[in-house]
Design goal:
Blueprint (H helix, E strand, L loop, with lengths): L12 E3 L3 H13 L9 E5 L13 E5 L1 H18 L11 E4 L6
Parallel strand pairs: 1-2, 2-3
Antiparallel strand pairs: 3-4
Pfam families: Peripla_BP_3 (PF13377)
Organism: Pediococcus inopinatus
Protein name: Substrate-binding domain-containing protein
Length: 103
């Protein structure tokens, strides 16, 4: 992550690919005295348990692990039965959980 250098502007928000990395980014920003969410908002992805306990609590995108597991099982089962299954795209719904790290 590139921290604000003299004369440059910080983005208004970061959408980070995992909550664990987002928590690390929050720490790096805090070490550089960049206030969350006053100066920059942070949103993670995965909705890990610790996201709600960091300070400020981390906004995150929740993906149902049960839905992913069920879809993976169904696709794997279909692959074993048909053997020549055509690749396809699968979409699983998400929900945004707003907490204190974003405005």
């Amino acid at each position: 992550m590139i921290i604000q250098q003299s004369g440059s502007k910080l983005p208004k928000a970061f959408l980070i690919g995992s909550d664990s990395i987002a928590i690390g980014a929050m720490r790096a920003l805090a070490e550089h005295k960049i206030e969350i969410p006053k100066q920059v908002s942070i949103i993670g992805f995965n909705d890990i348990t610790s996201a709600q306990y960091v300070t400020p609590s981390l906004s995150t995108v929740h993906v149902s692990r049960n839905a992913m597991a069920r879809a993976a099982f169904d696709l794997l089962n279909e692959q074993f039965q048909k053997r020549n299954m055509v690749p396809r795209k699968l979409t699983i719904g998400t929900s945004l959980i707003i907490r204190d790290s974003s405005i």
